[in-house]
Design goal:
alpha+beta; 5-stranded antiparallel β-sheet; 1 helix; 5 strands
């Protein structure tokens, strides 16, 4: 099954990065919090834990490649 989730960064501090995410840009229902010091730790937040883990992994990969947390966009898996 395909996954298309949209996200928008809400806050970014040295200890946490928080995103709003969901299936529609106008309805970013759930939250996702990543710890930059331990990006492999399970992300905290709302919504399906598997979807949350997939989104967190893709956001972390972009952070590692680009050097900054993405501000918004979509993830397809």
């Amino acid at each position: 099954m395909a996954l298309l989730m949209r996200f928008r960064r809400e806050t970014s501090t040295p200890s946490t990065v928080t995103y709003r995410w969901g299936t529609d840009q106008g309805d970013l229902t759930w939250t996702l919090t990543i710890d930059p010091a331990d990006p492999e730790a399970p992300p905290k937040g709302d919504g399906d834990p598997r979807d949350r883990a997939t989104i967190a992994a893709k956001l972390t990969l972009r952070w590692m490649r680009e050097g900054d947390w993405p501000t918004g966009g979509a993830i397809q898996s």
